[in-house]
Specification:
The protein is mainly alpha-helical. The protein has ten helices and two strands; from the N terminus they run αααααααββααα. Strand 1 and strand 2 form a beta hairpin. The radius of gyration is 18 Å and the shape is globular. The two termini are about 30 Å apart.
């Protein structure tokens, strides 16, 4: 846990460097897990711990300076903050808090609309609701990475186009190609994994037990 006194004494430039370092550590660990062939084997403990720690640090930063917009911390740090938020999957209240802040920011700056779409979809999936933009993927029964549940495909593609995204069909090809490059593999037992995911969602507070 970062001392709030330290954060409050940091200049925005220093805070930006701190946020970027959180992202860098996250991606480095992910690359290590890919090389070791452990990325698809459940939620890795080291990764979970890093995601939770990064979320706590960023939450303190946000409480101090507000949402880390481009104007406050620069493009690189602002995008790094969004990645940390996306990965804070065991912190429902934090992710929802950040979505509300990000939506407020996007009202005056369309730059953030894609980030809002991804975070909104991510939260919806964890809460058992339909995606609006189809940004979240997972392994299906056939062992393919596919978009998680969404509403009408025509409306989804219209929404995606309105914020500069490709079609869901095109993105599915991109996601599957990337998974092959990273040697990702589907779970050995689809139904068991689904049950474990539901238990996890209850445990961390995304859905009621």
């Amino acid at each position: 846990m970062v001392d709030l006194v330290i954060i409050r004494s940091m200049k925005h430039q220093e805070i930006a460097k701190k946020i970027i370092s959180l992202k860098s550590a996250d991606l480095q660990l992910r690359n290590n897990l890919i090389e070791e062939g452990e990325l698809s084997d459940g939620y890795n403990t080291a990764m979970k711990n890093m995601h939770n720690s990064n979320a706590e640090i960023l939450d303190e930063i946000i409480d101090t300076i507000g949402y880390p917009t481009i104007e406050l911390v620069g493009i690189e740090a602002s995008e790094a903050a969004w990645l940390v938020i996306q990965h804070a999957i065991e912190k429902p209240s934090f992710m929802i808090k950040c979505l509300k802040l990000l939506q407020q920011v996007s009202n005056n700056n369309s730059t953030y609309l894609t980030q809002v779409a991804y975070l909104q979809d991510r939260i919806a999936v964890f809460q058992g609701r339909l995606q609006l933009y189809g940004t979240q993927f997972d392994w299906d029964k056939q062992g393919e990475l596919s978009p998680q549940d969404y509403d009408d495909i025509i409306k989804v593609n219209q929404r995606r186009k309105s914020i500069g995204l490709n079609t869901l069909q095109e993105q599915t090809k991109v996601i599957r190609r990337q998974a092959k490059m990273e040697n990702q593999s589907p779970p050995s037992d689809y139904h068991k994994r689904k049950e474990e995911m539901d238990e996890w969602r209850k445990r961390v507070g995304w859905i009621e037990g």
